[in-house]
Design a protein that fits this description.
Length: 171
């Protein structure tokens, strides 16, 4: 994702993209969708593992589907963060560092679940924790809090990206 917008800004090709008769939202969603489809294609070969394991025993396909849902939702949110950071910087490397810092920040907040005693801070940290989310998904538990968090993070960061790209167009 670090190249989605940063490279176009650096090379000067963003002007031709932004002057095309396409909305800013369409540009951002197209770039994020391309990254998301590539991400999903990278995970697709793991389905073959399930087909091989099916011959060795019984597989609960609902749990497998839950795990893939979790990986897809978390991946969508992280890709949206990367897209936003690429839109915020002109350098691919800076976009990489910003994205890594944001993802690491989410992991660190999630670790607070193990540090804080029961209470508001513990609840917030467990809500954000990627480990808790994947733990629940791997048990086949689809918690709506995880769905809302990841979808909200994805939509919010893509909205901010659209606003940032709009600022280039009109600013």
């Amino acid at each position: 994702t670090m190249r989605l917008f940063a490279e176009e800004r650096r090379s000067g090709t963003i002007e031709s993209l932004l002057t095309a008769p396409v909305s800013t939202t369409a540009v951002v969603l197209a770039k994020w969708s391309a990254a998301f489809v590539t991400y999903l294609v990278a995970w697709f070969p793991t389905v073959l593992y399930m087909l091989v394991l099916r011959r060795a025993g019984i597989i609960d396909w609902r749990i497998v589907a839950s795990c893939y849902l979790g990986v897809s939702l978390i991946g969508a949110a992280f890709l949206a963060l990367g897209t936003m950071m690429s839109a915020m910087s002109k350098s691919q490397f800076v976009a990489l560092l910003l994205t890594m810092a944001a993802v690491l920040g989410l992991f660190i907040v999630g670790i607070g679940e193990m540090i804080f005693d029961q209470g508001l801070a513990h609840d917030i940290c467990s809500y954000v924790s990627i480990w808790t989310q994947m733990g629940d998904f791997s048990k086949g538990q689809i918690d709506t809090r995880h769905l809302v968090f990841n979808l909200s993070l994805t939509v919010l960061t893509l909205f901010i990206t659209v606003r940032a790209v709009d600022a280039w167009r009109w600013g």
